[in-house]
Design a protein that fits this description.
It holds the Pfam family DUF2848. By secondary structure, the protein is an alpha+beta fold. The protein has a single domain, classed as Fumarylacetoacetate hydrolase, domain 2 (Alpha-Beta Complex). Helix content is 16%, strand content 44%. An 8-stranded mixed beta sheet has the order 2-1-12-9-8-15-3-4. The chain has a 5-stranded mixed beta sheet with strand order 6-17-16-13-14, with no helix packed on it. Strand 13 and strand 14 form a beta hairpin. It is globular and about 50 Å long.
Length: 232
């Protein structure tokens, strides 16, 4: 993770000003099984095992993904139609400081049924082109809300909604994933997701956001999903 694999432009919002920055990203890590409630987490693991999905090696678990998968585009292409998004908070370390954004861990669900690590590599990972300084939201972190909408069969539906308090807090995730008090420079860390209303389903369009009710602001992004034919 020493050289940049992807450089993206973000608007960084701090206090009373905003600025555009090009951020070189050398690593991408998707954290899974980050729920704070161990009983609910273990119950879900058993449910997935009944569907043939193997239990994770650890909880939480940290999947290393190619940084080139990160994108701020409003369109992604997928192999077939068996993929779907899920909203997650995103942490990025820049020049010794931690920033917060929001992204979608878009995943191939067919591949996920037999190899989760490979499924995470199959799809681009959309991220909103805006960030907040972590220190501005840290005092009221658990009040932040994640939300997503999916367009399924031409109908826009509320797909996910809930507090980030359902997932492990940022500094705990960083410590467990990297054995350090700070995220490595240039690494983006996705922090885990919420359950989907009505279960996981593919969509043609996915919208996601993080909302701060204390500072009364939000970050939003959306993308369309273009399936490519699977010929064999």
């Amino acid at each position: 993770m020493s050289s940049a694999d992807r450089t993206l432009v973000f608007t960084i919002h701090e206090a009373d000003h905003s600025a555009l920055r090009e951020i070189p990203l050398s690593g991408l890590v998707i954290a899974g099984w980050t729920g704070r409630d161990p009983i609910a987490r273990d119950k879900h693991i058993v449910e997935l095992e009944e569907l043939g999905i193997a239990r994770p090696a650890t909880t939480p678990i940290f999947y290393r993904i190619a940084a080139r998968r990160l994108t701020t585009s409003s369109t992604i292409e997928t192999a077939g139609e068996a993929s779907s998004g899920e909203v997650e908070f995103v942490l990025i370390q820049l020049e010794g400081r931690l920033f917060v954004g929001v992204g979608s861990d878009h995943t191939d669900r067919k591949v996920e049924s037999y190899n989760i690590t490979v499924s995470k590599q199959m799809c681009d990972k959309p991220i909103a082109p805006e960030l907040w300084a972590f220190e501005e939201v840290a005092p009221h972190w658990d009040r932040l809300v994640l939300r997503s909408y999916a367009t399924i069969g031409g109908v826009r539906e509320l797909y996910q909604e809930g507090s980030v308090a359902q997932m492990l807090p940022p500094l705990s995730l960083i410590e467990q994933g990297f054995g350090a008090s700070a995220l490595p420079e240039g690494v983006a860390l996705f922090g885990g997701t919420l359950s989907a209303n009505g279960g996981i389903r593919p969509s043609t369009r996915f919208e996601f956001e993080i909302h701060d009710p204390i500072l009364r602001r939000g970050i939003k992004h959306n993308y369309s999903v273009v399936p490519l034919p699977v010929l064999g």
